[in-house]
Design brief:
167 residues, alpha+beta, Alpha-Beta Plaits, six-stranded antiparallel sheet, five-stranded antiparallel sheet, 3 helices, 13 strands
Length: 167
Amino acid sequence: MIAPSEWYAIQTLPRHEKSARKQIERCGIETLLPLCKQVRQWSDRRKVVHMPLFPCYLFVRLSEPNRERIRLLRATGVVGFVGNGREALPIPHAQIQYVRTLEKASVEYDPFPYLQAGQRVRIRDGALQGLEGILIRAPEGRSVVLSVDLIQKSVAVRIEGYNLELI
């Protein structure tokens, strides 16, 4: 019987997320590396680049993390699994789905500092219907912060025009 697969976070060295993803995918393991667009300024030009949404982290889908652990840790740039110090801990499926929904939707999103306190809300309609997060007010307007608790990283999504409900 095949064990159900779960998503796990892997910590990488800075700026090694994409190369680690390629090596891991060559082993036949499903990965998730959410990217966001950022404008970078050089002395002679400006360019839009795709940067990891959660710097130094990559997500992998595994059915047997203990068996696949050594193979993953051998990938260049991989530091280790995120967990409690003894074992890798799975990320709740809903949090991975939130990130995937953001990638598919045509909305702007940016990295945001992880928040532990605040009012939890659910988006009631539109392309982001069902997403839950923490409501904040920023100078640009209202945003919802979506969090991946295990790696303590968050994403702020501007929600002007969306209907919200308290959870």
